[in-house]
Write a structure and sequence with these properties.
This protein has 88 residues and is mainly α. The protein is 83% helix and 0% strand.
Length: 88
């Protein structure tokens, strides 16, 4: 969930620099303002993480968290940090 908050922070920063949100659901939340975007995105991701973590004893949930979800957010954070270098 911390990586999601990093994603939200960098997304808002990049949007201020002229980037465009490609996810239609997130774009809709952004049109309502920064706070609805932050809360909506965090609640959606948190619900997903809690749902997967609640099924940790199932091998598929554990594998999804370790092999898909965590690496995807880590790569997203790395990508957005890399974009900072391009924007600067």
């Amino acid at each position: 969930m911390a990586l999601n908050l990093i994603d939200v922070t960098f997304t808002l920063h990049h949007l201020q620099l002229g980037a465009v949100e490609l996810n239609p659901l997130m774009r809709e939340l952004l049109e309502q303002g920064a706070l609805p975007f932050i809360l909506g995105k965090h609640l959606m991701v948190s619900a997903g993480v809690v749902a997967v973590a609640g099924h940790w004893s199932f091998w598929l949930a554990a594998a999804a968290l370790r092999i898909v979800i965590l690496p995807a957010y880590a790569l997203t954070a790395a990508y957005q940090i890399g974009l900072l270098g391009l924007a600067g």
